[in-house]
Amino acid sequence: MYDKYQSPLSERYASKEMQYLFSPDKKFRTWRRLWIALAETERELGLSITQEQIDELKAYKDDINYETAKERERLVRHDVMSHVFAYGEQCPKAKGIIHLGATSCYVGDNTDLIIMTEALRLVRKKLVNVMAELAKFAEKYKDQPTLAFTHFQPAQPTTVGKRATLWLQELCLDLEDLDHVLGSMKLLGSKGTTGTQASFLELFEGDHEKCRRADQMIAEKMGFSDCYPVSGQTYSRKVDTRVINVLAGIAQSAHKFSNDIRLLQHLKEVEEPFEKNQIGSSAMAYKRNPMRSERIASLSNYVMSDVMNPMLVASTQWFERTLDDSANKRLSIPEGFLAVDGILDLYLNVVDGLVVYPKVIEKHFMAEIPFMATENIMMDAVKAGGDRQELHERIRRLSMEAGRNVKEKGLDNNLLELIAQDPAFGLSLKELEKCMEPSLYIGRAPRQVEEFLSEIVRPILEDNKDVLGMKAEITV
């Protein structure tokens, strides 16, 4: 196993559940389910297929003779026909009706659509669980004042919980997009070699209605409500683009979150989980690197760049089909899902174990709050009889002086002392310090958290309570 390339998406990042969805076993079992659905449909619509043949197909639907298929493919260079042959070896009575009227895309494309749909459902489950953990975090820290940042410069304060709602809102948008695409997924159905259903029209002796019903019946047997109404040989490759765009949207949101966590960890205000025996650096033993958040960012970059693959494939298909989509699809679609699966496991793991350091947050807050309190201080001085324009200029100059003391001399922020010493303000240091209560500067942040959670997030979580409670274990 150590002498050939192995994808890190499988070895290090993606869950076993997601890996199985894109495994050969899942694919070929789905092919057999589709052949059974086709045979059942054709029988129900009047073709001379017996229940005995159907039963024989069902008896071997999960017992795939892989070696027979591999040996046949070496000879005929066609994967679908090789598996038709292998299935027929096991089912001699049904051999003649397997794949009847169908083209390779009947199993290939329908299987891709089935697997992408199941994979989207797994992504959805994990996304909702991340949202649930973020909601808990936002609720817990909704009242914790903290410096906000614009341009990564200290700005009007917010709360730790309010900041978490920004991450959470982006996931709500992702869920909306995911549900839209998931709700629009259909099967290709039994469209034939160029999408005209000519072979099925022949089988059903010119009965157009039976051809239409065949599509619908196959869709329902495979758990879908409908098939795409028209197609070439393949379903439109634009579907793949829509799916990967959803995954890339989740990656964007996760990357933003990971950026913020890494910056906060630099500030020592919030820290991702760090295990007892974890090594942060091979050289610097003291380091606690934000490895999980960095990995989220790294995998997210991969998924966002993956969007180009299905775009290029969809835009360059010729007429009813070409096969230059095949190799690309085998890479871009599974790997996009495997990467997002890893991202969401990491996201859940990080949020579940986030460590907040209120004392550090308060220290940073108090170092900057005198600057942010100047508006309140100026208004108090005006109420006491001061001139607003004169006070504005004085406080501007004093703020510049205090800033130089901090930046050039490494001193503490002494703006309050400077203002107290200026008779134009008529305020004592004690009076000024009353303006330093952090909760005075966070606006509606706590209430906004409560409103957002109660009105937007909790209804979503209530609707999905049957899938909540996941815990993410990361491999390395």
Written account of the structure:
The chain is mainly α. It is 64% helix and 4% strand. The protein is built from 20 helices and 4 strands. It has helices at residues 8-13, 16-21, 24-44, 51-59, 66-76, 79-90, 104-140, 160-184, 198-203, 208-221, 238-267, 291-306, 308-315, 326-353, 358-372, 374-383, 388-409, 415-420, 429-433, 445-463, and strands at 145-150, 153-159, 270-271, 355-356. The strands form 2 sheets. A two-stranded antiparallel sheet has the order 1-2. Strands 3-4 form a two-stranded antiparallel sheet. Strand 1 (145-150) and strand 2 form a beta hairpin. The longest helix is centred in the N-terminal third of the chain and has 37 residues, at 104-140. The protein starts with 7 loop residues before the first helix and ends in a 13-residue tail after the last helix. Residues 281-287 have low confidence and may be disordered.
Number of helices, counting only DSSP H or I runs of 4 residues or more:
20
Overall pLDDT confidence: 93
Gyration radius, to the nearest Å?
Answer: 31 Å
| Global structural class | mainly alpha
Low-confidence stretches at least 5 residues in length (pLDDT < 50)? Answer: 281-287
Question: What is the molecular shape?
Answer: elongated
Query: What is the count of β-strands?
Result: 4
* Binned strand content: under 5%
Biggest sheet overview:
2 strands, antiparallel
SSE ordering: HHHHHHHEEHHHHEHHHEHHHHHH
Strand order of the largest sheet: 1-2
Q: Note the gap between the termini.
A: 19 Å
Helix fraction bin: 55-70%
